[in-house]
Every structure is written in C-alpha cells, then in structure tokens.
Amino acid sequence: MPNVIYRDGSIRQDNWILVARPAEGESLDIPHQPALIPADLWLAGYEHFTGRDDIGVWFDSHDEPEILGGKVNELPVIAVNFPKFSDGRGYSIARLLRERFGFANELRAVGDVLLDQLQFMKRCGFDTYALRPDKDINKAARCLNFFSQGYQAATDTHVPLFRRRAS
Amino acid sequence: MYVYDDHDRQIAAERVAQFRDQTERALTGELAEEEFLPLRLQNGLYVQRLAPMLRIAVPYGMMRAEQLRRLARITRDYDKGYAHFTTRQNVQLNWPALEDVPDILAELAEVEMHANQTSGNCIRNTTTDQFSGAQSDEIADPRPYCEIIRQWSTFHPEFAFLPRKFKVAVNASEKTDRAAIQVHDIGLQLVRDESGALGFRVHVGGGLGRTPMVGPVIREFLPELDLLTYLEAVLRVYNRYGRRDNKFKARIKILVKALTPEGFAEKVEAEWAHIKDSPTRLTPEAIQRIQAYFTEPDYALLDNATELLAEQRFENRAFDQWLTHNVDTHKKPGYAIVTLTMKKTGTPPGDVTDRQLEHIADLADEFSFGEIRVTHQQNVVLADVRQDRLLELWQTIVPIGFGTANLNTLTDVICCPGGDYCALANAKSIPVAEAIQRRFDNLDYLYDLGDIDLNISGCMNACGHHHVGNIGVLGVDKKGEEFYQISLGGSSHHDASIGKILGPSFAREDMPDVVAKIIDVYVDKRTGEETFLDTYRRVGIVPFKERVYA
Ligand code: HEM
Ligand code: SF4
What we know:
With about 170 residues, chain A is of the alpha/beta class. Chain A is built from 6 helices and 8 strands.
C-alpha cells in the first residue's frame, strides 16, 4: 500500500498492510508493520490487541460495523473494503461509523477504489483512499472536488442545503 | 413550478463538467467499459440496439414552454427530430451520438433540465399525479414534496450504488391514484391524521418486472417533517441488506418479502430512531420555501362557462366527445384540465416530433400559463385552461394530431418501444398497439366500453406496465419467434392488483381478435355501470379463458 490519497487531495506514502482473513483452520499472521485485520478477529483477540497503535481493523462490505459498538475510537484506523466499486454498502458503513459510533480517527477506503467514486466516499466520511493501482493518482484531487457542494447532509456537511438556504 | 437558484445552477454545471470529463476518459479507454457504465447510466445514457439512448429527466412530469422548445431543438440538432414520452414521465431520445451527450447535457442545463439518475442503480426521478395542484380532491399539492425528494436524492453520496434502481412516487388524491404508487419501490400517499396534520402513508416494495408486487404499507402515518429522514432509513436498510448476489432478486420488494413487511418496518424504525432528529429533518420553513414555487398561476376570476360549453357541445359532436373524455374538472371555477392524447393511430404511443414539441410549447404559452405535464400514460396535460377557450384549443390541436378523444379508453394504450428500438425486447410492441387501435376505431363503441387500461410491454422488464393493465400484453420469445401473453385484471390505482395470466400466448396477427373476444365477454357479462375491471373481478378469469381458447 505505497501511496494513499488524503481527503484534501494530497498523496502520501503509507505502510499500513491489509491482512486478509485467514483461511479455515489457519491463524492470523500479523506482519511487523502497521496492520489492518478483520474487525471480528480484532474483537476476538481484544485483550491482545487493545492499546496498540499499529493495529487497525477492516470491514468487508457485508460486515456489520455494529459489532464494534463503542470501541471504535480505540482503533487508529478503520478500513472498509469495496470488493467491487459498484457495491455501495461501504458508504453506509462509513456513515454509521462516523455518525452513529462517533469514530474520529482515520477511515480508509480500500479495494476497488476508483476515481469517480472518491467524492461520494469523502462525503460519507472516508478520509484516506487506497486507489486501485492502475488508476491515475494525479487526477484524484480533481475528482474529489467535482462538486463544490451537495444537497444532503452527510459527514462532511452536517447542514443540508435546505437549511443553509433558509438561513 | 420550481426554478433553480444559484446553488442548483452551480451543481448542474458541475455535473455537466464532470460527465464531460468522464466521457473523455471513456473515449480514450482510461475508463473501462464496465467502469463507465454506471456513470453514463446515472447521466441517462443507455447503449441500445441502434444507437445510444438518452433518457432526460422531467421531475414529476412538469415542463415549461422554453424547455419543450429546447428539447425540440436538441432532437433536431443531435437526433432524428423526434422524442418519446415515457411511463416514468421522462423524455427519451433514441439516436444521440455518445460524443455529443455532454453537449446535450450542457444545453439542457441552460434551461434547468438534466438527465441525472434517470437510469442506473440509484434513486430515480420521483413521479406524481399529472393533475397535481389543479384538482380539488388532493390532500395537498404533492409537487413540493417531489422537489424536496429530488434535491435530497440528487447525488446522494450514500445511495448512488444501490443493489438496484430505486423509484419513488407520490400521490395526493384520496379518490384516485394517477401515479401508480403501489407499484413503486416507495409509494407515498399524502394523508392527514385525526388532528389534521399532514403526513404520508408509506408503501414499500411494490414493483413490476420479473416479480411483480403491490407494495404493502409499512407505516400508516409519517409526519411530513420526517419525510427525508425516514426515506434515508428505508434506503439505508435496503442498501445494506438488499441482495446483491442476483440481479433479479436485488429489488427492495424481495427484501421486504423475505423479512415480511412487519420485519422490514421494524428494521426501518430501528434505523430511523437514530437519525429522526438529525439535521436532515425537514423544517416548516424549508417546506414553505419549496411550496412557494408551486403557487397558483395567475388565474382570472371566472364563472364556470356551463352555458357556453353546452351550446358548443350541442353544435359540435366531436368537440362534445373530446370534452367528455379528455377534459377534467378543475379546482378553479371557469378552468379545466386538458389531456392531449399522444395516441393517434399510426404513431407509436408517446412519440413526438420536434415540430410537435414546439406546438405543445405554443399551446402551453397560449392556453396554460406556459406549463405542461407529461403523464405516465405517455400523454401531455395542459392543466389550467379557461373553459371559454376550450373550443379554440380543440380546433388548434385536432389538425396537429393531439385531439384524439380517447383518454382512458382501450386505444389509449401504454406501450414500451419494444423490439423496434429496445435491445432487450422479446417482441415488438408498437405494431401490436397499432393493430388493436385499428381494430377498435369506432369511437362510439370505445366510449360504450368505458375506461379500460391496455398496457403492452415487449419483455418481462415491464416498461409498458403490462402487469397492471386491466388487459396486459407481454411479448415473449418462443424459439426465436415473437408471441404475446395476455393477463387480465391488473390495476395501478388505489385498488392496485397484478393481472392474472390468461393462458398460452398468441401470434401477433391474432392479437386484435383475442382482445375483441375478451371485450365481447365483458360486454356480455357486465351489468349496469360496471367497468371492465369490475366485471372481471366479479366473474373471474374463466369465462374469458373459455371464449378466447374456444
Ligand atoms: C429502449 C430502451 C429501454 C431499455 C433498455 C429499458 C430497460 C429496462 C429494464 C432493464 C427494466 C427492468 C428493471 C427491473 O427489472 O427492475 C426496465 C424497467 C422499466 N422501464 Fe424501461 N427500458 C427502456 C425504455 C423504457 C421506456 C421507453 C419506458 C417508458 C415508456 C420505460 C419504463 C420503464 C418502467 C416504468 C420500468 C419499471 C418497471 C418496474 O416497476 O419494475 N422504459 N426498463
Ligand atoms: S419492456 Fe422490455 S422491450 Fe419494452 S422497453 Fe422495457 S426492456 Fe425494452
């Protein structure tokens, strides 16, 4: 995961590693660098992982972020996987993490992350994006900002346009 | 009607710039075909049998004259000089070139139009009753709520990649439903509670297509201020739990059925409890602000022109018939609602030429405060016509082909483009509509038959709403040959129901005869004032089967 885009469009080096879910019967193999592990496994090994700032978690698109409950802010990074860019469940997961559970640390989009979805991701609360490597990372900043505003309230604007218009 | 402010204009311009950029990347191959697909669909662009097809949004079916004129110009400059009104109150162009679409969208934006979310797995254009605001039997004008939903759903960041397309419709009349809300993913019926407060009865999980369903009520009363937060809760539950493994099972109706309406409603309520009081909750000011765009036009103070009309009717039988069938009462004395039926035999239902679009614009300017509405039966409405000018209007429209006095009769067919244009079709549908129209060309006989909905689709996708036709016709493919299956007893109104299949399908040339036999059974069995649907519901399908397959 060498380059990651930040919500302001900047591009940075990054060394978080996404650890895949181990196969049946195999155990979790954590590398010697910051690692994102499946959220349910983090919970299962809670005593072991808690307090470590080099361990974050990831959710797949069908996972329920509810399992973390109030523990979200114990994590430095939460990633949400987009197995396919057209699978929109990750947007709901992001809003729930931000708005329902108050997650305040880094929220990252991983997987089939394409340019034209970046602004939706930003609005739903993602603040870093691991763009699919074949995409032109230099276009990210523009794609993050195609729209200067949105109609709805989301994590980036808590005030929907109808309230802004009224004031 | 709604007028853009600076915010809307800016968002519209940014959308055009974005799509231009996306199209360029698609043309250079930087965006893969499958990556461009949802982006172009969300801008209304299909790739079809003969050429791309562009579906232009007409929010809740309303247009101004200048918009019609611009559409006319676009069909001339970028297409073959005609367009098509659809069952979703939209307009389709059949032959634009892909490279031109960004320019077309830019032209549309100049007159406050767009093609946003007219296709793809997102929240589609919200539809409503074409008589909104002009009828006396509505609980409240539904259009402001449609506009509120339009804004909320436009580029909603959470719901642009749903399991499947998503359609919302709003109805406001207690007596009738001209928006077919019970066959939408969400159907909203405006209601008042015991205290007189305004709100919605919420249906979820209706729809046509492969698994047609009438949407059950999941909430009897939703206060109006809660509209958007509740919609957000429904959509979130659907986005998270709707099936994504199988395209045909991905619609919300399948989820509602799997969870049961009660189970689904519980999930929505649980979700809603968290966001009910979020900033997305509407405010009375926000609603009033939008309502202010839908105030009454500058009506003259008039009396009903009863005597004049009686006299004119007496002198002109054709005008009399048109008045009876295509003209409705209006909430204001001295005014009437006129429907121009785009159902002249020989013209595919809903088709309009560039010249006709301009004619309609002129009619709107001359007779109806510059506005029109498109109906889901593929007709056009002039909602505010002075009664004392009806004769003049009628004399103007007859020569240009809009005076067909057959509204709601058997020949006011709803018909999808079918095999003539659509790559998905199993069979042609336009020639079937035409053959039936030719067979039933005797107006007196048609009027005697009363209201009958005849709906034709060229395949199971049901763009022609065949499931909810009193008589539904579906194109089917049997070993490469085109056949037609009939269903009876469907309805899209307050008594919504899905038609029942009559039996084995028929060859195209048999269709007029088959419909004639069905009609004969009705004529034999009906009592008094019974409509076709009443009779069908009383006698059941058997007598029809016996006659048709005898
Ligand atoms: C020629 C290009 C068209 C194509 C390729 C097309 C494609 C489709 C498809 C694939 C569906 C099925 C969606 C599903 O299963 O849920 C559908 C549904 C629908 N289409 Fe079309 N369509 C076309 C034109 C039209 C036109 C001209 C109309 C209006 C006259 C229309 C109105 C509808 C409606 C109302 C439905 C929804 C049925 C439901 O509630 O499930 N479409 N269309
Ligand atoms: S019903 Fe089928 S044939 Fe007709 S327009 Fe829709 S997809 Fe095409």
